[in-house]
Amino acid sequence: MTESASPVLFDSHGRPLEYLRLAVTDRCNLRCFYCMPAEGIEYVPKQQLLSYEEMERLVGLLAGLGVRKVRLTGGEPFVRRDLVPFMERLSQLPGITELTLTTNGVLTAPHVPALARMGVRAVNLSLDTLDRSRFARITRRDELPRVLDTLYALLAAGIRVKINAVVMDGQNTEDLLPLAELTRELPVDVRFIEEMPFNGGSHEATAATLPWNHRRIREHLEQYFGALLPEPTRPGDTASHYAVAGHAGRLGIIAAYSRTFCGTCNRIRLTAEGSVKTCLYDQGGLDLRALLRGGASDEEVRAALRQAFYQRAANGFEAEQRRPLHQLSFESMSTIGG
Fold first, then answer.
1. Torsion angle in degrees (nearest 10) through CA of 253, 256, 261, 263
2. Is 265 annotated as a binding residue?
3. Which of 26, 81, 87, 284 has the most C-beta neighbours closer than 10 Å?
4. Residue 126 in marked binding region
5. Domain boundaries in the chain?
6. Tens digits of per-residue pLDDT, 186-234?
7. Strand 189-194 and strand 250-254: pairing?
8. pTM of the predicted model over 0.70
9. Is residue 134 part of an annotated ligand binding site?
């Protein structure tokens, strides 16, 4: 990664925009029911996905506007061919000081040495249960052993692991404590996430169907571990982190549906087909693919990005209210980029 003195870009609410979540594909090798339906998924035709060259150009422009951190998401990033060489090129872009990814871990283990060599210091690993039968039911695939292989390969390579577990009533609440127990011996962050409505219509997910919000998750953990010790949060953090006495790792809770962290959000999203989302809950709008393929200059792209950032919603609730009526049913998280 390289250092740069690029200026920090602020949105109209005074929040710095320093963090890009870049979806490299909308395809995934799992079918987690809280993310997408079991079948009938309409993937974006490959020619409509941004090429690696187009993504590299956009990341370079965003780095010039102040983006420092890039996280690759999907779908599952490793289902796209030649991901590692692309990551290596991104890691060398001026201004990008941190490159990481979110993965389900099924295909990741063989690539861990390359991630370590290019300076990837942390990886988010999606893992909702340690029980093989529940894993197969939630993901509709029997792949838990390969995910665990990735977990231990990352730790052996000295890469910090953040385990992300979506908390789903009646599905995996019995897994909260076994997952949290991983922090006793392993230097991992185990972060529990409120379920969100981005499931492509797989099932209803609203406030009325969210009995496990961030407060209840914390109460459940404290019944077992005792009082959790809050750790300081940094601007832009989505998780509230907690130390547990005697544990090598720590716990975290992400109020993704309650949206308690919007006031310091420093991230933007770029979907695999080139749409900018300045909030997870907005409908998108700026079509960068059309600009690039229409021959727009770098300055024209930068101007369009600045305009999109200036129109950013104050929080996720405002962004949701701005969605047109025909878009009130939320898309799959695989099309957004985690």
1. 180
2. yes
3. 26
4. yes
5. 19-336
6. 999 999 999 987 644 444 555 556 789 999 999 999 999 999 999 998 8
7. parallel
8. yes
9. no
